[in-house]
Design goal:
This protein has 181 residues and is mainly alpha-helical. It folds into 2 domains: 32 residues; 146 residues, Skp domain (Protein Binding, DinI Protein, Chain A, 2-Layer Sandwich). It contains 5 helices and 2 strands, in the order αβαααβα. Strands 1-2 form a two-stranded parallel ribbon. Helix 2 crosses helix 3 and helix 2 runs parallel beside helix 5.
Length: 181
């Protein structure tokens, strides 16, 4: 029985020694790991080129919205006129008018979907070059500051970070300096 206690004690000592040996490299690794964060959404919306892109998108969106609202109003008017006339129309005329309204509603729905796709494509077209430049700036800053990793602050993966680790304002300033005009 004495032997069994020694054997367990020896295993415990061996486990503690192994943990101590493994803890040293982990601690030094943690010291070498330097993190930074960037709020890409804020950077994209704050840089001058991003503001210009947002303004262009809003203009395009508002134009599409007016076009869609105009068509929607015309369809409503057709529906109201149909309700007024439906009692005096023949079955054939009523069916024809209903078909016209349904066709116009389907075209309106297609126009709405196409407009949404066009706005999304325009947004990607305007923002992708900006995002590419922001990423280049982030990579340069990370190298200069010897950062191991830069995380996106706005993606809910970063629950907390020190303010000193946030590169967003520096990225915005650098972008605007590099992309004047």
């Amino acid at each position: 029985m004495h032997r069994k206690i020694s054997h367990v004690t020896f295993r415990q000592i061996l486990s503690l020694a192994a943990a101590a040996v493994l803890a040293v490299p982990a601690a030094s690794f943690a010291e070498e790991l330097k993190l930074g964060t960037v709020d890409m959404q804020k950077a994209l919306q704050t840089v001058d080129a991003g503001k210009k892109a947002k303004s262009q998108l809003e203009k395009d969106f508002n134009n599409k919205k007016k076009e869609l609202q105009s068509e929607e109003a015309a369809i409503k008017k057709m529906g109201e006129e149909f309700k007024k006339q439906s009692l005096v129309l023949s079955d054939e005329a009523r069916a024809k008018k209903q078909g016209e309204i349904q066709e116009r509603i389907m075209k309106f729905q297609e126009l709405t979907a196409r407009s949404q796709t066009e706005i999304q494509q325009k947004e990607a077209e305007l923002t992708q070059p900006i995002i590419g430049k922001l990423r280049d700036i982030i990579a340069d800053l990370a190298k200069k500051k010897s950062l191991s990793v830069v995380l996106e602050k706005n993606e809910n993966t970063v629950l907390f970070s020190q303010e000193k680790d946030d590169l967003t304002e520096e990225v915005i300033t650098t972008f605007n300096k590099q992309n004047k005009g």
